[in-house]
Specification:
Blueprint lengths: L5 E6 L2 E6 L10 H6 L1 H5 L7 E5 L5 H13 L2 E7 L3 H5 L3 H8 L3 E5 L1 H10 L8 E4 L8 H14 L6 E3 L6 H9 L4 E4 L6 H9 L8 E3 L13 H14 L8 H11 L4 E4 L7 H10 L4
Helix pairs in contact: 3-5, 7-8, 10-11
The structure holds pyridoxal-5'-phosphate.
The site of pyridoxal-5'-phosphate has 17 residues, from α1, α3 and α8.
Length: 285
């Protein structure tokens, strides 16, 4: 893979740079491509099956499905119960993942946790389990590749930004680039929860800065101000960002920082189809 390009955009009278990891692939892009890098470099014959679990519209799920299709690996994905409406929907990440051959297994909510915990028992050597959201130490290698691309672009910018779910991306990026400031914001839970998740992977370095939103947002809920920011970014920069993570990150960057920043586009645009439909239902357009 060549290094992903960098775009320059104007927002609120400020200039930002954007690392276009969204352009890597329609389904396997952004930080999911970086996090799956090690597995993508693994010879196909090493495994025959990948197991993962989590949300039913997850970007990680779709990226893993695209990887398994290209590797000819079986992909089994566990979720709690899914509504009939979603099963029938022909747009969104779930529909695309099924189209790529993902085998979906539904678990009763009361057995979900226990079942997921039992997956690693008696695992055969040809099967690999990826934890929810791709929160895996193996993500380190792909993020070192991204770090090298950033370093090699010789920019004047010394601050980076990328939004967090599990925090895996921001953490490994900050560790790989100690000479840069890495801003992130918690999109799932609060800052304390994010720090807890990160610490499970590695000690948090000093150059990683968590910016907290002024207001509490629930993950994957539609918010008018998120939609407004998504549309402004689309119109003014001609770049589509995802609706779940990017608006929260841009919001705190505009409110709480002043210097020039390189924003790492974390992908996830494929999930917008189903999210836009939800905004439309709430008459937010
Ligand atoms: C998964 C995802 C994130 C969160 O990445 P983490 O490494 O879990 O923090 C951020 N942005 C987008 C678009 C994602 O799909």
């Amino acid at each position: 893979m060549h290094s992903s390009p960098i775009s320059e955009i104007e927002l609120d009278g400020r200039t930002f740079l954007v690392k276009r990891d969204d352009l890597i692939d329609p389904f396997l892009a952004g930080n999911k491509y970086r996090k799956l890098y090690t597995l993508l470099q693994t010879p196909s014959k090493t495994f025959n099956k990948i197991i993962s679990y989590g949300g039913t519209q997850s970007n990680a799920m779709l990226a893993i499905a695209a990887m398994c299709k290209s590797k000819n690996w079986e992909f089994v994905y566990y979720t709690t119960s899914v509504g009939d409406a979603q099963k029938k929907q022909n747009i969104g990440n779930f529909a695309h993942a099924i189209g790529l051959g993902m085998k979906h297994r539904e678990l009763q909510p009361q057995y979900y946790k226990e079942y997921i915990a039992s997956l690693r028992i008696n695992l055969d050597e040809k099967t690999y389990i990826i934890d929810q959201g791709g929160a895996d130490r193996s993500a380190k290698e792909g993020l070192s590749v991204l770090a090298k691309e950033i370093r090699d672009s010789n920019l004047d910018v010394k601050s980076l930004a990328t939004p967090s779910g599990t925090g895996t991306t921001a953490l490994f990026l900050a560790l790989a680039l100690p000479e840069y400031k890495v801003y992130t914001t918690p999109c799932v839970g609060d800052a304390l929860y994010l720090q807890e998740q990160m610490r499970a992977l590695h000690e948090i370095p000093e150059n990683l800065i968590i910016l907290e939103p002024a207001k509490k947002y629930h993950f994957a809920k539609p918010y008018e101000e998120f939609f407004t920011l998504y549309k402004r970014l689309l119109q003014e920069s001609k770049i589509e960002f995802d609706l779940l993570y990017a608006p929260g990150m841009w919001k705190v960057l505009l409110e709480q920082t002043q210097e020039q920043i390189l924003y790492i586009h974390s992908g996830g645009v494929s999930g917008n189809e189903s999210m836009l439909r939800r905004y439309d239902k709430k008459s937010i357009r």
